[in-house]
């Protein structure tokens, strides 16, 4: 695991600390590219950083862990379309050209689109209105090139263009998930999940891995897919704060320490509040935890909340944090009205 700098202030982080909506692990997919002769475009959305092994040659040349097109001999651009795993508002993108030193594109641009349902590639190419979110911009080789995005619309697809050709290792699309709220009407769902609009808003420490992992879908497959803090040497404890998909009532809490064997927290507590200025109240009292275990707690709590905070004692790692429940009627109606007005 690659250590990351801690975030002790609890302030909203830079956009690169927001979840990557394009990740394959979140359900993202590269559904089209006009060329990937040297290295397939699917590599763009892999979770781990790009790797490189010198003098590793295949039939087509050096093997790259990224997307690489052939050298253009005619005018034009090379493009790839990514369907976001979690549709939402994009706050920024990173065009990562790691290990591409003499074969990176000198310029890139990024467009986005909002298309309902599951469109075909032909529909995306011929019938879709694409909105520029990063104008044509210069990039450096072997560098993570960040670009802030000011558009506040909800998008389902993004298109990366290289001018004229070259290679990109990873394409990160950081933002906030905005699902179709009509889906929320059909029973309990995870109010904290990234794909449902949950968002990490503050965190005491993310030395080993991002707290965004807590809200990913499914089960973690290894320890690196969870949230892990550094070892505390003081009397405090670590914590993470989540803004829920909407105002709702939580009926079941899941605290999953899977794969954390000698570094799981000794205990955890969950609190909630209704509004950013509301008082914190107890959702789950401080409870002892076991290593490598999926803990589930049914609640008898009829109190709405918009935010949750999980405290772990004193430190350690957690694979997943899930809060199952339902939206209040007012919150559900408000989200649907926003959706139908085209707001995100």
From TrEMBL:
Assigned keywords, A-Z: Hydrolase, Purine metabolism
Record's protein name: Probable allantoicase
Ranges for domain Allantoicase: 27-176, 197-327
Pathway(s) annotated for this protein in UniProt: Nitrogen metabolism; (S)-allantoin degradation; (S)-ureidoglycolate from allantoate (aminidohydrolase route): step 1/1
Catalytic reaction list: allantoate + H2O = (S)-ureidoglycolate + urea
Gene Ontology biological process terms, A to Z: allantoin catabolic process; purine nucleobase metabolic process
Organism domain of life: Bacteria
GO molecular function: allantoicase activity
Gene this protein is translated from: alc
Pfam families: Allantoicase
Hydrolase in keyword set: yes
E.C. designation(s): 3.5.3.4
């Amino acid at each position: 695991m690659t250590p990351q700098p801690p975030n002790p202030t609890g302030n909203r982080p830079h956009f690169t600390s927001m979840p990557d909506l394009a990740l394959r692990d979140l359900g993202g997919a590269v559904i089209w590219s006009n060329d990937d002769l040297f290295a397939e475009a699917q590599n763009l959305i892999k979770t781990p950083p790009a790797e490189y092994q010198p003098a590793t040659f295949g039939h087509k040349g050096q093997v790259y862990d990224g997307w690489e097109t052939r050298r253009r001999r005619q005018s034009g651009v090379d493009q790839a379309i990514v369907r976001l795993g979690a549709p939402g508002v994009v706050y920024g993108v990173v065009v990562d050209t790691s290990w591409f030193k003499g074969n990176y594109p000198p310029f890139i641009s990024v467009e986005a689109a909002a298309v309902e349902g599951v469109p075909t590639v032909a529909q995306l190419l011929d019938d879709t209105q694409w909105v520029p979110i990063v104008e044509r911009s210069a990039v450096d080789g072997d560098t993570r090139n960040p670009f802030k995005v000011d558009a506040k619309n909800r998008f389902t697809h993004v298109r990366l263009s290289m001018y004229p050709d070259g290679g990109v290792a990873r394409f990160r699309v950081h933002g906030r998930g905005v699902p179709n709220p009509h889906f929320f009407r059909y029973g309990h769902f995870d109010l904290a999940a990234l794909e449902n609009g949950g968002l990490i808003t503050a965190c005491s420490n993310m030395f080993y891995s991002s707290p965004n992992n807590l809200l990913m879908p499914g089960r973690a497959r290894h320890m690196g897919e969870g949230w892990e803090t550094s070892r505390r040497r003081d009397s405090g404890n670590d914590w993470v704060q989540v803004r829920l998909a909407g105002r709702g009532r939580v009926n079941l809490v899941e605290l999953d320490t899977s794969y954390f064997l000698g570094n799981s927290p000794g205990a955890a507590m969950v609190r909630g509040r209704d509004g950013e200025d509301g008082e914190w109240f107890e959702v789950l009292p401080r409870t002892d935890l076991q290593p490598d275990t999926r803990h589930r707690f049914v609640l008898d709590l009829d109190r709405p909340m918009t935010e949750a905070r999980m405290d772990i004692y004193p430190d350690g790692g957690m694979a997943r944090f899930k809060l199952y429940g339902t939206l209040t009627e007012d919150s559900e109606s408000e989200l649907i009205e926003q959706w139908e007005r085209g707001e995100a």
